[in-house]
Amino acid sequence: MILIDFYVFQIVKTLSHSAEPKTRTIIFTSYWIISIAALVILFILPLLNLDNYSKGVRSTVFAIIIGLFLAKMVASIFFLVDDIRRAIQWMVGKVFFKNTEGEQIEEGRISRSIFLSWMGIAVGGGLFSSLVYGFSNKYNYKVKKIALKFPNLPSSFKGLKIVQISDVHSGSFTDKRAVEKGVEKILQLNPDIILFTGDLVNNESDEMDDYMDVFSKLKAPMGVYSILGNHDYGDYKTWSSPQAKQQNLERLKQIHAQMGWRLLLDENVTLEKNNEQIALIGIQNWSALKRFPKYGNLKKAYEGSEHLPFKILMSHDPTHWDAEVRPKYGDIDLMLAGHTHGMQFGVEIPGFRWSPVQYVYKQWAGLYQEGSQKLYVNRGYGFIGYPGRVGILPEITLIQFT
To answer: Please, are residues 185 and 143 in contact by the beta-carbon 8 Å criterion?
Structure first.
């Protein structure tokens, strides 16, 4: 960060060379006050013992500091391109004995160096501004309505309304009323069944203490079903003992039950309407990526559902679909996943979707289909790390069978 600060400062000096001395002093002083303060705060933040609300403030401050650093990094790419260009120009001049060390600026035009420098400042500043703006979107819940048709779906289940939510990450919340409004949106959809696809907490079951009453309001005629995600096992926290970690997981399972959610742990249930049946299968976290655990056992979860004509699988990580579900279980018609959050950053406009997360996950948001099998990846109800959303908004999915 210090090296980037010094590098960007050289550009700031270049761009402000024509300013008044007093203005230059103000610019330089402000730059270093902000840069040094960011470094000092970055070291202090982890040392503070904070309550949940203050932890939210800390996350916001941390995100601002990292956003500032990323903005400088992106801007530096433009500066580096210009430095490389000028270095090549200088070397060519030396080889061919031509004076190309300077740039001729035609009247009314700016040099390439100045243009690239201002372009870098503009792009970096735009990135930082978008990240700050994204703080206001973290509770801006959007309902995505999806109509799905399956030829083998029993006729009694046509018109079935499923609400899927995923990745609550309750430890990141700081505005209980905003979270309640999202729950109210879900209830207004009048779903027949509600499915939660993992990551109720960041690490600790205690994170749900202030939100159990909120999520307990989720009710549906055919029930509320849930699974565990990678964060629910407490793998990203240092525990005092293995027993403490296991106790945390057991309490989290109890919380699902206390809220009236049926937690599926490598098992399936039969859903019935008018004497017709379909299977709902729920598996513990299973990922094809090495850095995430494989706790789930799909073979065990699937057993007993073979005879049912239609199957829905709840599996937190979308990599499970290509790695095991499609190759081995061709009769699982629909898989519901979450996990990616769409990286909470990207662009989604008609005809175009992009997020950096797509370079890690082939299926990262929305609906995917291979043959007769479908996968839907929810963009997440909550947030973690960056306390905001840019372009990829928090999602409530309404799936209706037609």
So the answer is: yes
Contact status, residue 397 vs residue 164, Cβ threshold 8 Å:
yes
Q: How far apart are CA 40 and CA 43, in angstroms?
A: 5
Among candidates 133, 128, 183, which has minimal Cα distance to 382?
Answer: 183
Residue 47 confidence (pLDDT):
81
Assess whether pLDDT exceeds 80 at residue 246: yes
Domain residues of the chain, as ranges? 2-135, 139-401
The burial of 163, by beta-carbon neighbours within 10 Å (0-12 exposed, 13-18 middle, 19 or more buried), is given as buried
Question: Which strands, in side-by-side order, build the sheet including 193-196?
Answer: 142-148, 395-401, 161-165, 193-196, 224-226, 261-263
Asked if 332 and 313 count as a contact pair (C-beta separation under 8 A), the reply is yes
Return d(Cα 308, Cα 206) in angstroms, integer.
Answer: 39
Q: Could you tell me which of 259, 326, 264, 262 has the C-alpha nearest to residue 295?
A: 264
Cβ atoms of 383 and 141 within 8 Å: the answer is no
In this prediction the pTM is 0.87
- What's the whole-number mean pLDDT along residues 144-163? 98
Q: How confident is the model at residue 43 (pLDDT cuts 50, 70, 90)?
A: confident
Closest CA to 280 of 377, 194, 201, 338: 194
Which single residue is written with the structure tokens 């700081």? 174
Q: How far is CA 104 from CA 63, 101, 108, in A?
A: 42, 10, 12
Task: Count CB-CB contacts under 10 A for residue 297.
Answer: 15
Least confident range from 132-136, 180-184, 211-215, 263-267: namely 132-136
Q: Which fold has domain 139-401?
A: Purple Acid Phosphatase; chain A, domain 2 (3.60.21)
From residue 361, alpha-carbon distances to 272, 292, 343, 373 in Å are: 34, 13, 10, 18
**Which structure tokens are listed for 393?**
């908004």
Q: Which of 259, 277, 258 is nearest to 268 (CA)?
A: 277
Chain center to CA of 327: 27
